[in-house]
Amino acid sequence: MPSSASSDAPIGVFDSGVGGLSVLREIRALLPNESLLYVADSGHVPYGDKSPEFIRERCRVLAEFLLSQGAKALVLACNTATVAGVAELRERYPQLPIIGMEPAVKPAAAATKAGVVGVLATTGTLKSAKFAALLDRFACDVRVITQPCPGLVERIEAGELESAATRALLQGFVAPLLAEGCDTLILGCTHYPFIKPLLRTLLPASISVIDTGAAVARHVQRMLSAQGVLASGPAQPAQFWSSAEPQAMQHVLPLLWGKAAEVLPLP
C-alpha cells in the first residue's frame, strides 16, 4: 500500500461465500468509523474441496478487485483461503496490511479443563500443513479431535440457520466430539458462527465454543493503527459483491449482516 493511502479509504474483506460476514460484523462493531467492502466468492463456494492452486488464483482475483476499489487493507475472512493464499498476497503487496484467519487452537488449548478440544472445520482447513503446525505449536498437551463438516457451509449459504436439515447435519458432526469428552469446541470456519445459536441447543452448557472473529477485528485495528490509517469516520455504507447470483446473497444479508443492502455482481 502506498504510504499516501487515505485513512478514510475502505477495508476490503473477502471469503468463499457469506461466512466472512461474521468477521465483517466484528470489524464493524470494533471499528464503526471504517468503511467496508465485502466480496463473497459464492460462485466457487465452498473452498474446502478446491485445490490450493485454484484458491490462490481466486485470492489474487479478489485482492486485485478490492484494491481497484481503493481498499487500504485486506482481510481474508476464510480459513481455507488464508492457508492457501495469504503468503503469496503478502509477497505481492508487501506494504499492504493483509490479515488472515486461523482456527483458535491456542485459546482453546488454554480454555479446556478436560484436555480434549473438538474442531469443526472444512476438509481443506483440516488437511492443511498450517493447521498441523498450529496443533504442534499450541496443542501438545491437549487431545484435539477434528471433525470435517461437508455440506454445512452450503446450508448456511442458503440462510438455513435453524432448519431441521441443518440441525440433523450438525447433530451428526457434534455427537462424536461429545462422545470423546471434549469440553471446548473450535469453530474453524467463518460460516459457523452463524449457527452458534443452533449449536448451543445441541451442547451441554458447560462446553466452551470459540471462534476467531473478534480477535481478527482487534488485529485489523492494531495493523491500521501501526500504519497511522485508522479512519476518523463517518463510515460510508458497506458495499457488497458476489460472484454468484447477487439476489441469493441479497436474500440472506438481513439475516447475516443485520440489514438489507444491494449486492452487485462481481465483474
Write up what this structure looks like.
The chain is α/β, with parallel strands linked by helices. It folds into 2 domains: 11-101 and 214-265, Rossmann fold, CATH 3.40.50; 105-211, Rossmann fold (3-Layer(aba) Sandwich). Helices cover 44% and strands 16% of the residues. It has helices spanning 21-30, 52-68, 79-92, 105-111, 123-127, 129-138, 152-157, 164-179, 196-202, 213-226, 246-256; strands spanning 11-15, 36-40, 73-76, 98-99, 116-121, 143-148, 184-187, 208-210, 239-242, 263-265. The strands form 2 sheets. Strands 4-3-1-2-9-10 form a 6-stranded parallel β-sheet, with helices on both faces. The longest helix is centred in the N-terminal third of the chain and has 17 residues, at 52-68. The protein starts with 10 loop residues before the first strand and ends with a strand.
Layout of helices and strands:
Elements: E1 11-15, H1 21-30, E2 36-40, H2 52-68, E3 73-76, H3 79-92, E4 98-99, H4 105-111, E5 116-121, H5 123-127, H6 129-138, E6 143-148, H7 152-157, H8 164-179, E7 184-187, H9 196-202, E8 208-210, H10 213-226, E9 239-242, H11 246-256, E10 263-265
Parallel strand pairs: 1-2, 1-3, 2-9, 3-4, 5-6, 5-7, 7-8, 9-10
Helix pairs in contact: 1-10, 2-3
